[in-house]
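quick one
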Amino acid sequence: MKIASVIVDVPARQTDRPFDYLIPARWEDLVQPGIRVAVPFGPRKLQGFVVGVKEHLDVAPDKLKELAEILDVTPVLNEELLSLGFQLAEDTLCFTISAFQAMLPAAIRAAYKKQLLLRGGVPEQVQALFGGKDAIDWEAAEEHPGLLRSLRASIAEGAIEVVYEVKDRAQKKKQRVIYPSAPQEELERLADGLKSEMQQDILRYFIEHYMPVPLSVLKEDVQVTESPVKSLLKKGILTERYVEVYRSPYDEEQFARTVPFPLTEEQRTVIAPILSSIEEKRHEVFLMYGVTGSGKTEVYLQSIEAVLRQGKEAIVLVPEIALTPQMVDRFKGRFGSQVAVLHSALSIGEKYDEWRKILRKEVRVVVGARSAVFAPFENLGIIIIDEEHESSYKQEDNPRYHAKEVAIRRGAYHGCPVILGSATPTLESFARAKKGVYHLLTMTKRMNEQALPAVDIIDMREELRGGNRSMFSALLHEKIADRLQKGEQTVLFLNRRGHSTFVMCRDCGYVVQCPHCDISLTYHRMNQRLKCHYCSYEEVLPQACPSCQSPHFRFFGTGTQKVEEELAKLFPEARVIRMDVDTTSRKGAHEKLLTQFGEGKADILLGTQMIAKGLDFPRVTLVGVLTADTMLHLPDFRASEKTYQLLTQVSGRAGRHELPGEVVIQTYTPEHYSVQLARAQQYEHFFEQEMRIRRAHHYPPYYYLTLVTVSHPQLLQAVHVTERIVAMLRQTCAADTIILGPAASPIARIKDRYRYQCMIKYKREPNLKAVLRMIYEQYQADMAKDLQIAIDFNPTMVM
Ligand code: ADP
Ligand code: ZN
Ligand code: ZN
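structure w/ adenosine-5'-diphosphate:
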């Protein structure tokens, strides 16, 4: 009797451990670590992951229940990912089941229908199971337990593939493939018996390529028409079948192939230690600090090439918003169909298909956003994280993992280098590099010795004093006009964060708030409605002020729509493309707008953060930042760092090619060091200055941070629990640990739940996880009801 240890899908503290189940004899061959099963759990039947198979019983067999169903025939998580899941649960105090689920594409997380697809030759009785079809449901196979063993062998050989049927908006396509009906040895004899030369050629082709071939490829390769193929089909010498093709948003032929550039001296210096780390299969973390346009991406590409020559695989992470067609082009252009792409704009089916390509070892490079760090490669040779400072690498809900930490764990497991690249590294990374924890690689020269763009900083207070009430300073106005006249392009950047388009009564100052959250409602001009971005509450714009009945409202905040309107007034002839959440919510809209701009179909590209990254348009010679301060005044200790990063990044968009670039930054605090140092792109100065401030205020990288947020429908309960937690922490933490709180969270109520928090700042606190786990245990009963306690290690956004 064998026993399966199963992590069951009951996200609760007391059940976050493996449970044992008997494996029914008929499934003994099929149950292995990494497959999903259904198990009886109390009165319910639940999903779970098999994490181990044991031969010995610790308890009497009649104490154990049997597995109810097996949901996978092949593992969906390999050994490395299973142990990574346990580690992730440990690191972030999330449930093991959530960690496992986070590593899989949504398509297989949900229990969809499972199908078996016939792909090659299989034993006769298995063939019979398919009854002449190419696909059958898994249930049909399960009715023949005697066949399970040979079925599994065929699956292992790749002759049968297990596929989850996904309801998806992307249509599944089919392709007609042709293959010989006879065994390879017989084809020679059959060919000799044929009269037609063309038919003989076709059979000779199959003697060489004994595998199914799409009809179009066959016609092309053998240079024949369809008619000899038809004759062979009629004679029964060839067989045809329709097979599924992967859903893909990319048309492989659209990518022009590129060849590696001869590297510059600086690139050669930087790539040398990476190549030796690859060569020696040595795990090492590199921080590649290089100004925009210094050729970092080319170094990534050539490092990957070395990895592929070793027969290994590569993961490249880029921030979601930087996953532009241009970025995809560069990887597909170099490595063609060996590249899978994973990002949130793909449909659930497309994502699943990209993931399957990885699992079936049909691709060896993955370019993707955060979760691509879990790509199930088994032979990793490099992991690259571009724009390593981006906060989107941290997942903001459970499991609160940071892709950088996961990458480093995987790099250590596979014995391969991890490269963190950025023009503006996080202070944490740069400090580690300076200490020698990371290997620092520096690139200071822009390609072709292009000068950095000239930057003008405009004091908007001065503009106001001079009587200019417009969103555009006189200088920016003049420069836009100049570009329009020359036929060059402008990018305008609205550094807007949060939802500042609120509605205020002109007479009494009343701001319309969400009834369920402590946050003002956002006005959507399109349908004249007010929306809450935290709980999706909606109402129509009131006719009169709810407080004083005045009919006069004022709309605050400079949204992109408002800028667009003003542009239309100032430059009626200009063609403007606006990119924000409203214009890019449809799938593919983002790409389409960028392509239009790239083709010169517009003069001005106007947008939010999403246009700050990775764009590379030769005709853009002017970048305007309308409000540099919005981010600076957020109550976040990283506000200056984020402002510096953003200004540097946007400036990098101008003058990337022959035409020189100019940047205009409008601000109300021109004297701020973030603004001043970003203008000169003096990262190291900025680093020194900001480090002094971090040290003085006990912030990272000098101290670690952990944020505990308590929420409850009753305010007093939230306060009370937070007080108790603070008291427990004070009792156990080290003397130099700082515990702040209880304090109301920046948004003190969301979805009718009150939120209180406590912040722990510490140098060394080896017992912190144990204490926090104890707190969880103590509140277990309350957490099953109304109480929530969220723990965030190294939170990205701290207020
Ligand atoms: P980064 O990633 O640091 O912003 P890129 O790799 O995009 O820099 O390089 C900037 C530009 O220079 C790109 O257009 C790239 O194709 C080109 N480039 C990179 N390396 C070389 C090289 N060795 N020789 C010529 N051009 C190069
Ligand atoms: Zn709300
Ligand atoms: Zn009013």
